[in-house]
Amino acid sequence: MIPALTPNYNRANLAFERGEGAWLWTTDGRRFLDFGSGIATASLGHGNKHLADAIAEQAHKVMHVSNLYRIPQAERLAERLVANSFADSVLFCNSGAEANEGMIKMMRKTMFNEGKPERYRLITFEGAFHGRTLGALAATGNAKYLEGFGPPAEGFDQVPFNNLNAVRDAIGPGTAGIIIEPLQGEGGVRPAQIQFLKDLRAACDEFGILLGLDEVQSGMGRSGKLFAHEWAGIKPDVVAAAKGIGGGFPLGAVLANERAAKNLTPGTHGTTYGGNPLACAAGNAVLDVILAPGFLADVTRKGQLLWDGMAALAHDFPSVFEDHRGSGLLQGLKCAIPVGTVQEACTAEGLMTITAGENTLRIAPPLVVTDADLAEGLAMMRRAAQRCVPDAGKAAAQ
Question: Is the pTM above the cut of 0.70?
Answer without folding.
Answer: yes
